[in-house]
């Protein structure tokens, strides 16, 4: 087994062990965590769907917090289309799109952000034509959503719109000067001013058990790596046992073994 101390074998063993440690301490647990998060969000969606819509004032006095996310809320008021914002680089059914965020003033004076949905565009650099929301007082029903976060806080002013990279009412508030409450109201199909409705899906993952299958794959990869390492070590041992003794072969070729008895 001394061959394992050679640089090439040492590098192989260390690489395999590092990969296995990464699989079992980071990659698989990370996917298990994402699956647990997706499941918790799906349970929150299911619970919110089973709860009838209620006036937003009975759900939250100010802004959207994680404990009320996905709840169905009702508001009455008017859109403020002049302060509208777009979220760039969205993808809907494999096609580029923008998400439309429009401020909304309720009859009791609250300033909310309404996620009206998405509009398809020809490319991520093209701003499509946006249908205006209805004028006058309307009543909306939608799901409460917390803000997304852009670490760089980017806001552009292009094509007559304030353009963001995430759906963040705080960035829109800074860009417009409006005292918008944190979070947004995501409209469903059929609501006044809705465009292409956003799907009601957990944002942290895809289909159920997708992340779980990824986690099991990383565990399997770790096992395969160890088995492969053991196989290569065993193969090297078998090859070494099958090789002739080089010193004995050298003596036989030189005739030393035949001459030794005559010397006596």
UniProtKB/TrEMBL annotation:
Protein name listed in UniProt: SURF1-like protein
Location in the cell: Cell membrane; Membrane
InterPro entries, per database record: Surf1/Shy1 (IPR002994), Surf1/Surf4 (IPR045214)
Topology term for the membrane: Multi-pass membrane protein
Pfam families in the record: SURF1
Family: Belongs to the SURF1 family.
GO cellular component: plasma membrane
PANTHER family with a match to the protein in the record: SURFEIT LOCUS PROTEIN (PTHR23427), SURFEIT LOCUS PROTEIN 1 (PTHR23427:SF2)
Keywords annotated in UniProt: Cell membrane, Membrane, Transmembrane, Transmembrane helix
TM spans (from-to): 214-233
